[in-house]
Design a protein that fits this description.
Blueprint (H helix, E strand, L loop, with lengths): L3 E6 L10 E8 L2 E9 L5 H11 L5 E6 L5 H4 L2 H7 L1 E6 L7 H4 L9 H11 L1 H12 L3 E3 L6 E2 L2 E5 L2 H10 L8 H15 L3 E3 L14 H4 L3 E6 L2 E5 L5 H10 L12 E3 L11 H8 L14 E5 L11 H9 L2 E5 L5 E5 L18 E3 L2
Parallel strand pairs: 3-4, 4-5, 5-6, 11-12, 12-13, 13-14
Antiparallel strand pairs: 1-2, 1-15, 2-3, 7-8, 8-10, 9-16, 10-11
Helix pairs in contact: 1-3, 3-6
């Protein structure tokens, strides 16, 4: 069989959206299975069952990547680690860097106490660390430039990640004001009105995404002559850092063929300038069906009324995207991959005439 890849964006059906992605790719004589996040804890068995059913029932997974510590990405990976033999777990652990940040936390007099507190705050990844150690799984740091199979990490750099640990509202614990601000922001997002706007008009939120989202590991690969970008929940700063690093891995922008839409299609993670850089400028009119330039996939749940935002879907279509979501069903994007019984082509999203008002 010739080289191929298949990327499965699994539906994570909950009140909120989550990310669970499995990949299989063959280059020459080597086939790799590569899992990126696992959704919520309840999603884990779905990921395991999917891999067993469609990837020839393997016992072994080469790479499992934790993009960032949020529960909608990390929870299901507990089941994956428990049920498979895993070679490498790629995961950033804040407590490894306390010697470099402890002077920022005057309440903590010892490295050990700050490490303990960080493990309590980031308990999702602390659990994964315990499982990995018990099974002798090698834990690797997915910092900028790291090679994960055929993928390269574009962001975060180590310096930026350590800065984000210090900036996080969770570190060492959220303040009441921070929690109140987050609640007000969430309520405001739900109240945003829709307005009808002409082709090409783009309105994004001026608010930034969370610090934890900005910690997201962004991965790039060129497989079967296609450029693939997995963004997790990366925000504008992360996507900018990733774009700045792209030339060092031979990636000339714009030019992405398969694009994971950041953070379930949130308006806080992208801008016109960032999308221009990654995907190209806005077109003068909508492309005809089946003439689209690239594929964009959104991990979003049917019950999640906040994602994806219409402004983001519009912006992707402005640049020639065929856009799919995982609402109600999993989505596979592939090249030269084996056929699957029961899988048919999904329907792409229509262009929204309305979008969210600022």
């Amino acid at each position: 069989m010739s080289d191929f890849f298949e990327i499965d964006f699994l539906d994570v059906e909950s009140a909120k959206s989550g990310d669970a992605i499995s990949l299989r790719y063959k280059i020459g004589d080597t086939t790799n299975i590569h899992v990126v996040d696992g959704g919520f804890q309840e999603t884990g068995q779905k990921v395991v069952d999917h891999i067993r059913k469609y990837y020839n029932n393997p016992d072994y997974i080469q790479h499992v990547v934790v993009t960032h510590p949020d529960g909608d990405h990390v929870g299901g990976l507990q089941t994956v680690l428990e049920q498979f033999n895993v070679e490498h777990l790629w995961m950033l652990r804040p407590w490894l860097y306390v010697n470099e940040i402890i002077d920022q936390f005057p309440r903590f007099s010892s490295v050990e106490n700050l490490q303990k507190r960080l493990k309590e705050i980031y308990k999702n990844i602390a659990v994964l660390e315990e499982i990995a150690k018990s099974k002798n799984i090698e834990i690797c740091e997915p910092f900028q430039g790291a090679i994960i199979g055929e993928f390269t990490v574009l962001t975060p750099s180590k310096k930026r990640y350590i800065d984000l640990i210090v900036q996080s509202e969770r570190t060492p614990e959220p303040t009441r004001d921070a929690q109140k601000t987050a609640s007000i922001r969430e309520l405001f997002e739900k109240m945003i009105a829709l307005i009808k706007t002409p082709w090409g008009k783009e309105i994004f939120s001026t608010d930034e995404t969370s610090t934890e989202n900005e910690m997201s590991v962004v991965q790039y690969a060129k497989l079967c002559n296609k450029h693939l970008l997995l963004t997790a929940d990366a925000g504008r700063n992360g996507l900018t850092e990733a774009a700045d690093f792209a030339p060092y891995v031979g990636l000339s922008l714009p030019g992405i063929d398969r694009f994971q839409v950041p953070h379930h299609g949130s308006r806080h993670n992208v801008s016109t300038e960032i999308l221009d850089h990654w995907l190209g400028p806005r077109l003068s009119s909508k492309l005809q069906k089946d003439k689209e330039k690239f594929t964009a996939i959104v991990s979003s749940a049917k019950k999640d009324e906040d994602h994806p935002r219409k402004a983001v879907i519009r912006a992707l279509i402005h640049r020639g995207a065929k856009v799919f979501t995982t609402e109600g069903s999993s989505h596979r994007t592939s090249q030269n991959a084996p056929d699957r019984n029961g899988w048919s082509a999904a329907t792409s999203l229509e262009y929204p005439e309305e979008q969210e008002e600022n």
